[in-house]
Structures are given as C-alpha cells and as structure tokens.
Amino acid sequence: MKQNETLTTHISLILNGLLLQGLTTAVIAPGSRSTPLALALAQLAHEQRIELFVDVDERSAAFFALGIAKKINKPVLLICTSGTAAANFYPAICEAKISQVPLLIMTTDRPPELTKVAAPQALDQDHFFGNQVKSFFELPLPETNHDSQNYTNYIVQKSFQIAQNQPAGPVHLNQPFRKPLMPDLPIKLDHNQQKYTSFSSQTTLSSNLIKKVHTNLSNKRGIILAGPNQNALSNIAMLEWAKKSGWPILADPLSQLRGISSPNIITCYDSLLKTNSDKLIALMPEIIIRTGQTFVAASLASFLKKSQATIYSLDEENALNDYTKTTTFSLETSAEDFFNQIPPVNPLTEWLKEWSVIEKVYTSINKINSTDTLNELEVVRAIASTGSKKLNLFVSNSMPIRDIDSVLQPLNAFRIFCNRGANGIDGIVSTALGVSTKSAENLLLIGDLAFFHDMNGLMMAKKYRLKIKIIVINNNGGGIFSFLPQAGSSNFEEVFGTPLDIDIEQVAQLYHAHYSLAETVTSLKKYLCTPAHSLEIIEVRTDRKDNVALRQELINQFASHIQTTKES
Amino acid sequence: MKQNETLTTHISLILNGLLLQGLTTAVIAPGSRSTPLALALAQLAHEQRIELFVDVDERSAAFFALGIAKKINKPVLLICTSGTAAANFYPAICEAKISQVPLLIMTTDRPPELTKVAAPQALDQDHFFGNQVKSFFELPLPETNHDSQNYTNYIVQKSFQIAQNQPAGPVHLNQPFRKPLMPDLPIKLDHNQQKYTSFSSQTTLSSNLIKKVHTNLSNKRGIILAGPNQNALSNIAMLEWAKKSGWPILADPLSQLRGISSPNIITCYDSLLKTNSDKLIALMPEIIIRTGQTFVAASLASFLKKSQATIYSLDEENALNDYTKTTTFSLETSAEDFFNQIPPVNPLTEWLKEWSVIEKVYTSINKINSTDTLNELEVVRAIASTGSKKLNLFVSNSMPIRDIDSVLQPLNAFRIFCNRGANGIDGIVSTALGVSTKSAENLLLIGDLAFFHDMNGLMMAKKYRLKIKIIVINNNGGGIFSFLPQAGSSNFEEVFGTPLDIDIEQVAQLYHAHYSLAETVTSLKKYLCTPAHSLEIIEVRTDRKDNVALRQELINQFASHIQTTKES
C-alpha cells in the first residue's frame, strides 16, 4: 500500500544516486526527522548494499565517520536529525576540512514553514557549518515535480564528487522533510537512474619548467621534507627519485614512509635539530623540497626559518600550506606528478652518507632500555618493534604524536593515522574506531585526557564488537603543558595539569573491554603481540614530569654521540 | 620583573571590564592559546573576585556555563583554546541562542600571521558560530596603542551587555594572542578603568491601545496560555490579572507557575486535549492570550489551530514565536508590561469554575497508585509530592519533559529548568550541574540515552563535589520513538530503540557517585526526601513500551471521569 510515494521516491533517488557514485558506508545518529533515511538505510544494510553504523552521540558519530573515510579515502555518509544534533558534528567537520578527508554530511530539517517561527527543535541550519565545509546545498523537499527530482539526483551525486575531489573535504547537505515521515518500505532502486561522472585531471609540467627546476636541483645538497600524505603513489615516485638522486627524505610519521628500509629515509630529525649540535652545519641543505601537509615537528619550522636553502613547496591545491612562509618557489603540482616528471639529479658523493651515519647513531641509542622499565618513550619503542606491516596505528594529538615523531623508528612500514588537521584531542577514540571497521590490526595510542574526552566513543566498539587495542598513557592530566613556560606557575595543576583521577579499569568494565595494566616493556610487548579479539585497553601509568626529563636525556645523549662520531 | 607588560595590560583590561559589568563566574576549558586568561582567572578566583570552573570537555563546559547562566540570568564567561575546542561549544551555543540565555564566549586564536597558512591547530574562527550568536567581535591583539586598548575595554563591556539585554543570548569574542603567552602575575586591576552603562527600556502601551484591548477582552471566555518564562515579575502581574478577571492560566511546566496554589492555574490541559472529550466544547475560549516562549505540549498547537478564538501573542522581541501561525494580534510588549497596564476585566460567572472542576478531576486520578509499583509517570508524581520550594528541578528533553508536562501537579512551586530552545538531549547532565553550582537543592530527571550522551559532564560533579540527585529513567534506549509511527517497523531497535545496555551502577562508581536502585514509589520518595550530600544517582528501571500504554490509560481514565462529571 503506497502511502507516501513522493517521500519514498525522493529518498530512493538520494541513496541510489550515492550508491552510483560509490558510497559504501553510512553512519547515522538516531532521531525523528531523519526517519525516512534511517529506515531506508537499515533496509539497504540488510540487503548488504551498504554498511551502516548507528551511533547515538553525534560528536562521536561524526568522528567515527571521519575515521572510516580516512581509511577508505572515499566519502562516508553521515546523517542526523534536526537541531543541536548537527552542532555536535562540528568538531569532526573542522578536522575533515583541514585534513582533507571526504565526508558527506546530511542534516535533516523541519520544512520551511516550521523554521524561524519558534517551532520546537528548529534552528537555522542554512550554512550551519560556515566556511568549515567545502560546499553547502539545501536539498528540495520531496516533490513530484520531475525537474526537482532531477536536481536532487544531480546535487547528491555532485556533492559526493566535491567531497572526494582534491582537496577532499566535508560537504553539507540540508534535507528538509515534512510529516508524515514513514516511507513505503522496502524502497526500490531505479536501475535507470542517471549517473554523473567526473574525471580528475593531472598536472603536466611544461618542458621549460622541468628543465629549469632540474637545473636548479642539480649538484646541490638537497633534502626532501615529506609531510603528512595519504597518496601511496606519491611516495613511490618520491622514493624512487630520492634513491636515484641520493637525497635524504625527512619522513614525518604521517608521511607513510617510516619503516621503509632505505638509507634515504631519515627519522631522527626532530631530536637532531634539538641537539643544536655543530654537526648540523655539515647537514645544512642548499635545496629543500617540501611535500605533503604541515609536518608534526615544530623544530622543522625553526629549521626552515634559519635555513639559507632554496625551498620548493609542492602545493597542488594552492592551499598556502607553508606557515613558516619560507617557500622560495611554490609549485601547483602533486608530489606524484612532480617526481614522475622531473628527472632525477646526479647524486653527490658523501651527502646522503652524512645523514645516514647520523640516522644510524640515533637508531643505536633510541632503543629499549635494559632495565625493562616502562615510560612514554619506551611505549613508542615497543610499538616500533612489534608493529606488523598490517598494523593501523592511530595516534592521539598532544603528546603521543610528538613522542611518535621523535622516537618512532619502526621495523615495518605500517599505516599511521592522526587527526592532524586541527590537532584536537576531541573525538580521537571514535576516529580510531572508525578506522578499525575497515582493517584487521588496530592500535590506538592515547593519553588519559583525550581518552576521557571521547570515552562515549567506546560504545561503538562494544556495540559492533570492534577489534582494537588501546594503549592509554595515564599520566593523570595534560602532559603537554609540562613542556610549556607555565609549568612552574602556582595554579598549574588547577588550570593546566587538570588531573581527572580516572579509573581506567572501571572504564574498561563499563564498555566490556579486556583490561591490562602494563608495568614493564616486556609485558607491553607481550600484549601488543597477541591478536586483539575485541576491545582491549592496556593502561600504562607514567608521570608527566618524567617525560620532560626523559626526552631531554635522549637529546643530550644523541648530542654527545654525534660529537664522538665527528671526532672519530 | 615585567616581561610581558602589553599582554598583561590587555587581559587586565578585559577581565576588569567584565567585572565592572557584573561578571561573577567563568568556565574555562584548558589549552595552550588561552594561557594568559587562564592564569589571570585562576588568580582572580583565588582572590575570590570571581568563581572559576575548569572543565576539560569543551562540549560539557559550554553546557555547564549555560546551566549557570540559566540560574543566575547573567552572562557567564566561557573560554577555550584555538581549533576544534571551540567547535565543541556549538551545541550549547545553539541552545543558548534559542532559549535566550546570556553567554559570553571567548575563543582564543593564533595571531593573523598564523591563520590560513596551514599552521598547526589553526582554523578560521571568524564568525565561527555563524548566525547562532547574537554578535561576533574580533578583539585586537594586545597592543600599547591607547585607542586599541580603549576599544578592547569598550567591546568586552558592550558584549556583556548585548549578551544580557533582552532577548538575552550568546555573544562570541575571538581573541588572538601571540607568543609568549605568559602574563606578568599577579595582574592588577585598574580602579579608574572606564565603565560603560546601559539601561533597558520599558514598553508603554498607548491609552488608545489599552482601551481597545480591554474592550476586546471584556465579557469573553478568555484563557491565558503561559509558556516557558524566566521572569518572576511577569508571573506576579499575570496571576494578579487572571485572579481579578477570572481567567484560567494554562501553565506550561517551564512557566514557573505550576505548584502555585490558585484555582486559576490549570495543569491538566495536555491530557484533557488528548481525551477528545465532548466536554472540550464547553471549555473552548473566545480569547487566548499567549505569553512566554514555545510551550512544551504539541497538543496545544493542535488546539490553537482548531480554535476559533481571537489570539493575542505577547511577543516582546518580535521573535515570531508562534509556529502555529494562529496569532490574531501580535503585541510587542512583555507580559509584565501588558498585565500591569491593561486593567483586569469583569469575571464571567461559571467560566473559571468549569476549568477548576476539570482540573480537580484530573488531580483526583493523577495520583500515586496503591500498588507502589514504579513507572515513568509515578516518578513524576513522586517528585510532585516531595519537591520543596527550594528545589531546582532540571528536566531532560525527549520523554521526561513530556511526562512532566502531562503529569506534574506539584505540591510546591519549585523552579523547573529544561534546555527547551533546541530541545537537544545533548549536554543535559552538564547544564543541570551548572544550575546546581548556584543552588542548594538539585534534582535532574533524565533518561538513559541523554544520561549517556553527556556522561562526561559528571566529571564536574566529582571534581567540585557538587550536590545533586540524578534520577536516571533506564528504559535502555530511546523511549520517545515508541510513540512514533515507526514503532512497529522491522529495524526499529537497530535505528531507533538503540539499547546501550549501560550499567548505571558502574557509571556511578566511575564518578564516585552514591548509587541507589529505586524499585518502589516508597523507596524513590525516601531517596528524594533525604538531602543530597554529593552526587547521587538513583536508577529507575522501566520498559519503553509500558509508558505508551500507561499514558493512554491515564487519558482514558480522565475521559471517563469527565463524562461522569458532566452527567452528574
């Protein structure tokens, strides 16, 4: 019995349009106004045409969708009801915008006659996410008008493409619905629905430019600074080029280059720059090529500012991605196109070797201590020594990503994720869980404060029996502030340290997680080597102040070893 | 030793300016960019010039500030660092905008040279909350320039006033800071700093209008529909007028009129309208005066649409507050000014009595059952019978506020709060806890889903040893959906019911709360009568489906009693 044919046709158009574009996954936060989409998606999920996740906390839901999209590099559909529900999506949307993750956000809304007249749960959702989205579209109400239906089909498909096209990012669709909200189930998808196709273009550098750049790069001490990057093809081209040219690549942990066995890959740069060693003079490059997004290490920013080198930035999307403002030549090209089109230069003798020697020195001291005592740096070393090629490591912001940046020298090249757009400590648990839905081996490294911030996110692990290990570095508060000038101030603990005294084991119980307390490196490595069968929380208790001393000690040690190397 | 005099002067100006305006309370979410304000506020808090709360989850922090502002009716200062931190404020800001709660949001930001160039943790915070705030101002960087300093002082004081003036609401200030971020402590406040004063104006109705309105209202069967309202003076004037004129007042639970012992106060309207009784014909008014914000009961909207009455809406702020679009005359005046200036009319015999009789019938059946079994309606009745005049009752959205609306006939007039602007189930715990910081007797009525959504909010109760009782109606999922058409659909539990299987006792343990399971009305009343010494969580387990039947039964019973009354 067809009661609501217009509504049913409308949502079929939308969902079929998205399936035509390649939609595979949707996340929905329950509510009333989104009822037609929720019921239709549940049906499509049961028919295995789509994977559907339901998350009651919209903030977590949005980060969960972000995690999935990070892993699959395709837009994920994210849906909620009207009102403040949508506002909870905002943090994840900001992150998606800066870190260029494709998301298709569909907020549902009251019909026009119920907006701006103080109807319940109605707020102005027009351009609700401001300039934090790539595009905003108001979808029409379900209508029998053919042009309106075509428009709906066109807009949803275009939105998917806009979200996906470089630079990828979030696109917001606002969909008003009028009551009654019950569609006629099951909805049917029209096999003849028009599909819109778009092709992405490649950059072709002119032969003149190629010649000029190649000349500029030749016979110079050059390095590549590889920032965060999702494109495996870029890395293949870059590594090939660097090998032939004898250039070192300073590999940000999010470049996806760490763990690749090659003398060109340099990971010690953050500690090296902090040594302020004389040795740095010999390592000063004449040319720097920057690729990828903003690197994690603040020390690199100072290095760029002090450097006399000519700096090339590959800025495909003209995203002004250089906050150091040191770029000499900005090229609107992808790293893939650049390294495939510019011929390699002749390697200079000794140049790469100078770097490799220092890298080896660092590797020799950056190792698990003999006393088996666990601390924040040993956790990173334990991960480096146990992580398999299949591992998906999600790293929280604040201290964990900095520890990873300074210390991670992995045996294998595994995938590393981080919300390194806006660098928030919000939504980390959910983003990591989102990633985990599409991969077999999952590990999250997170501090107690970020863990608490998105504790609600754990509900999805319980509900969908997701398999992930979470290492909670519990130093009872905000570790990073101990590195800042206010560390000695009188109200430090109250406004910066903020100890929360969370009982991690109780949290684990609440979400039916397996809990372990790791007290030695050996025990931590043991936990890391056993496959995760469910949600596993491994607590490591550390002291915030210790970490400051620990890192300084490592740098001092590195400095003295470099000195020895130089003298020998 | 003065190292950072310009920065110190700047933040002194800001905080002193706000103190001059009457700022009493600040909530800060920790971060690095907000360091100067955090340290200065901590100092002022230790000097007892201000009350300061630190909340690590920005979403909770914003709702916490909202709760305080609801209770004190003055702007609360809410501060965070740059980046996604601010985005977490968005849900509470949307709620503050619609429900007209004064909030002064200060997001801190990177300096201009670090925005839009992919610097870490930098996003475009300009007009970050779109049209969900009353005003947005970009504060200048700390400067020695005298005009700039005056501008800072002026803007912060004006922002406070804008947030406070009717209609109250959120105002957003974005404050960029350049490193170094350490102010010279202690900051000193300048006793001679210029203060800006603003006066609010009153509406004076013209004598012509008064005469005309009075004539229209005379000799008519009139009712007052009193919606949500914070203004006690309005209520005094309205009640006085109604008593003299013999008009019933249909008192929304958020009107602050329930529990006032007066034959004019009618609370049975929601159940009455749902009976569809013939009796309703005799109760149909010729005139309706609407005051306050949008009422809770959807049944009233249908009633207004069906009614043939002339409808006056008192819409002081021209807020188009009538989504039923049934208003005949809209008056830009406050209820206080209206009822003080329009003379009462002569009461019609029998009119008020007709209503009072029905109200008494409802009171006689809307009472605690003899079997002592607990259900969602009995919880409301238990609160009605135990709540003292000092009680501050916070009611969650979705089912609890609807249950309260239909059933609450309290013995005492206590204060009832609800986030009834955008009606979200997010941030309820934090908003209630915010209210509780400024009152002695606190009770929150909430379902398990909303409780889960803002579980993080409980951290503030633990940290600041807040005294509040929380009744968690645990029906394991979203109760309201059982009242909607999709209740019978095949994927109902998956996308609407969403049982989370939360162990409330474990949550209580995690936050060091006292936990009780109430299984009878008697035990619940006992828990309610004992003063709260800390955070107390009282779990009441119910069945989602039962509630639908229970409410229908109450309405059926009411219908049959009305019938009897009529016939007798």
TrEMBL record, chains A, B:
Q: What is its EC number?
A: 2.2.1.9
Span of domain Thiamine pyrophosphate enzyme N-terminal TPP-binding: 17-125
The enzyme class is transferase
Q: List the catalytic activities from the record.
A: isochorismate + 2-oxoglutarate + H(+) = 5-enolpyruvoyl-6-hydroxy-2-succinyl-cyclohex-3-ene-1-carboxylate + CO2
A matching Pfam family: TPP_enzyme_N
**Pathway(s) of this molecule:** Quinol/quinone metabolism; menaquinone biosynthesis; Quinol/quinone metabolism; 1,4-dihydroxy-2-naphthoate biosynthesis; 1,4-dihydroxy-2-naphthoate from chorismate: step 2/7
- UniProtKB keywords: Magnesium, Manganese, Menaquinone biosynthesis, Metal-binding, Thiamine pyrophosphate, Transferase
Q: Which SUPFAM superfamilies match?
A: Thiamin diphosphate-binding fold (THDP-binding)
Domain (Menaquinone biosynthesis protein MenD middle) spans 193-395
Which metal ions or organic cofactors does this protein require, according to UniProt?
A: thiamine diphosphate; Mg(2+); Mn(2+)
- Gene Ontology terms for molecular function: 2-succinyl-5-enolpyruvyl-6-hydroxy-3-cyclohexene-1-carboxylic-acid synthase activity; magnesium ion binding; manganese ion binding; thiamine pyrophosphate binding
Give the GO biological process terms.
menaquinone biosynthetic process
Q: Which family does it belong to?
A: Belongs to the TPP enzyme family. MenD subfamily.
Q: Which NCBIfam families match?
A: menD
Quaternary form? Homodimer.
Protein name as annotated: 2-succinyl-5-enolpyruvyl-6-hydroxy-3-cyclohexene-1-carboxylate synthase
Native organism taxonomy: Bacteria, Bacillati, Bacillota, Bacilli, Lactobacillales
